[in-house]
């Protein structure tokens, strides 16, 4: 049942699918749920940052009606007042500074999340591409194995082959078909992984296009210059900006507990009908409470984030150095497979067939050569995928630098 399910999932949807190019997959990565929601969050923060008021506190309006009893008769009284607190510590400016710091940190977090998603999509797309190539090669080998088995069966009927040779041909065909089923399962797994990253339903018939991505990369001589800037990668920058935002919030708390002046005015209607006006000035000095409780927690969090930013910068430098190394390693590996492994396996399989027809080789020799050829072609597909992934990964990391 599992083999049947894998075969149906791998083969059936692909026939009606439009191939998805690497560039299209990268574009769709930005539209996935998490990166898109972070982008909307940044835009929301920017809009509300522009709406911050010039004054940090609202006025207070008061109305005090009353009735006074007097010997000459009761009278109606009313007091109307307005008070406006003013912060000499520029609380409104501190609020704007904190909001901007938080928005900058959120922007870098959104960029870091998008970079991570694009790196994951690049790996998933290239894994799917390699799995498709290997599955196609396995299907071709299975077809050739079936043709060989039929030829040996016909030769056996004419007395030109033995039952042992037929059994070996049948075993080779069974192995080829099992390899094809295994490759189909890899295609299904890779397709589902890519669908999850792109926010597609599991039934989405994703097929990687045949063309591999072509990206522009700097020469190896510029590696040191790029590594020196690794600390500017989004993850490290996001941690640094989060620490700055914590300090800005601590400054906001300090400003909220700073010197506060309250200006007010009152209008009073006396019971006998007279009207008077009063002015009021109040001062609230930060004698005891200056936000020590909140500021301590915020500044401690900022120190922790500074350490995280430093470690993130070290990790970013190591990741970028590894990306440069993987590019060279994958290119060298691909060159070896293309120029040596595959041509050698092809020539060995061709010579084995020729020698078999000439009566100078045996069927097991041909089967071994064909197995080696199939393995070489599968290795070629994965080597191309790894080389493209190394190049795309390096390109994406360098593109994320300011």
Automatic annotation (TrEMBL):
InterPro entries: MdtP/NodT-like. SUPFAM superfamilies: Outer membrane efflux proteins (OEP). One of its GO terms (molecular function) is efflux transmembrane transporter activity. PANTHER family: BLR4935 PROTEIN, OUTER MEMBRANE CATION EFFLUX PROTEIN. This is Heavy metal RND efflux outer membrane protein, CzcC family. It comes from Pseudomyxococcus hansupus.
């Amino acid at each position: 049942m599992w083999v049947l399910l894998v075969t149906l999932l791998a083969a059936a949807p692909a026939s009606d699918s439009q191939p998805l190019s690497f560039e299209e997959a990268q574009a769709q990565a930005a539209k996935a749920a998490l990166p898109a929601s972070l982008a909307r969050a940044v835009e929301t923060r920017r809009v509300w940052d522009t709406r911050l008021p010039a004054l940090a506190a609202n006025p207070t309006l008061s109305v005090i009606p009353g009735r006074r009893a007097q010997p000459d008769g009761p009278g109606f009284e009313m007091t109307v007042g307005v008070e406006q607190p003013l912060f000499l510590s520029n609380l409104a400016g501190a609020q704007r500074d904190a909001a901007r710091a938080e928005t900058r940190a959120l922007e870098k977090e959104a960029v870091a999340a998008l970079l991570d998603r694009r790196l994951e999509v690049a790996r998933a797309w290239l894994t799917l591409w390699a799995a498709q190539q290997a599955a196609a090669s396995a299907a071709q080998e299975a077809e050739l194995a079936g043709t060989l088995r039929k030829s040996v069966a016909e030769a056996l009927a004419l007395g030109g082959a033995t039952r042992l040779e037929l059994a070996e041909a049948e075993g080779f065909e069974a192995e080829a078909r099992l390899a094809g089923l295994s490759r189909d399962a890899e295609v299904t797994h890779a397709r589902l992984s890519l669908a999850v990253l792109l926010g597609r339903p599991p039934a989405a018939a994703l097929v990687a296009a045949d063309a591999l991505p072509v990206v522009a990369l700097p020469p190896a001589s510029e590696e040191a210059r790029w590594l020196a800037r690794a600390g500017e990668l989004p993850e490290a920058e996001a941690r640094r900006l989060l620490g700055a935002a914590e300090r800005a919030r601590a400054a906001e708390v300090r400003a909220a507990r700073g010197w506060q002046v309250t200006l007010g005015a009152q209008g009073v209607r006396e019971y006998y009908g007279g009207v008077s006006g009063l002015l009021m000035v109040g001062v609230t000095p930060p004698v005891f409470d200056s936000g020590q409780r909140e500021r301590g927690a915020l500044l401690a969090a900022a120190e922790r984030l500074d350490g995280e930013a430093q470690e993130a910068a070290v990790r970013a430098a190591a990741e970028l150095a590894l990306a440069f190394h993987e590019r060279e390693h994958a290119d060298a590996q691909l060159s070896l497979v293309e120029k040596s492994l595959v041509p050698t396996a092809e020539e060995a399989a061709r010579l084995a067939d020729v020698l078999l027809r000439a009566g100078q080789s045996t069927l097991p020799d041909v089967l071994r050569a064909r197995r080696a050829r199939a393995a070489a072609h599968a290795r070629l597909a994965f080597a191309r995928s790894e080389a493209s992934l190394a190049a795309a990964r390096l390109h994406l990391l360098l593109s994320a630098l300011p």
